[in-house]
Amino acid sequence: MLVVDDQDMVRQGLRLILELAGVEVVAEASGGAEAVAAVVQHRPDVVLMDLRMPGMDGVEATRRIAQASEARVLALTTFDVDQHVVDALRAGAVGFLLKDVTSDGLVDAVRRAAAGEPVVAPAVLARMMGHFATRPPLPARKPPGFDALSDREREVLAMIGAGRSNAEIAEELVISMATVKTHVRHVFAKLDLRDRTHAVVVARESGLVSGF
User: Fold this and answer.
1) For the chain, what are the domain ranges?
2) For the segment 95-149, what is each residue's pLDDT rounded down to a tens digit?
3) What are phi and psi of 193, to 5 degrees?
């Protein structure tokens, strides 16, 4: 585990909470460049990354870490959902936490990230989509593999982007849960998606989600 924050007291407080819960913190970093170097040196499973730092910010550090390692980055922010968070998810973060997260919530999120599980809660996904809806539409940017999606797979991706659960997708498309899961698996594989949060971003950027 690597903890990254430019404020010493915040960084040390996070480390104390994690270590008291039995999470091994292999290093700390006070900036983006230092974080990238620490990942190369210590190879942590999870990086808790502050987004707003002087010099190299957390978004750029996340991008470099995602490109160079298998570490799973959790973005840490004071703000609810802003462009920095969206940029961090696009750069490779697996989720994000607010700095007012409880101690138990922090430890649980880190453990879930280490286990490869989704970290962003459905309520946060809803706020994220609300953030998208208030912004002017962007030109569609289709990711590699998008053209390989079938019409049904694009439909499923659009519904994920609109916040639908697998059960809701099955009900709306009148197909079985097993079929939905197969479509979701194919979409994730073809687009190299990490999780549903990443899928929401890609659905929006691809122009699949109306109103986004």
Assistant:
1) 2-119, 139-205
2) 888 888 889 999 999 998 898 876 775 556 666 666 655 555 555 678 889 999 9
3) -85, 145
* pLDDT tens digits for range 44-70: 999 999 998 989 999 999 999 998 899
Give the pair of three-digit tokens for residue 16: 């104390």
- Integer angstrom CA distances of residue 109 from 18, 31, 51, 182: 11, 22, 17, 27
- Where helices occur in the chain by DSSP H, the ranges are 8-20, 32-42, 58-68, 83-91, 103-114, 122-133, 151-161, 166-173, 177-191, 196-205
Fold of 2-119: Rossmann fold (3.40.50)
Question: Which residue in 193, 94, 79, 81 sits closest to 144, CA to CA?
Answer: 193
Residue 35: C-alpha distances to residues 53, 96, 204 (Å) = 11, 17, 30
- Domain 139-205: assigned CATH number: 1.10.10.10
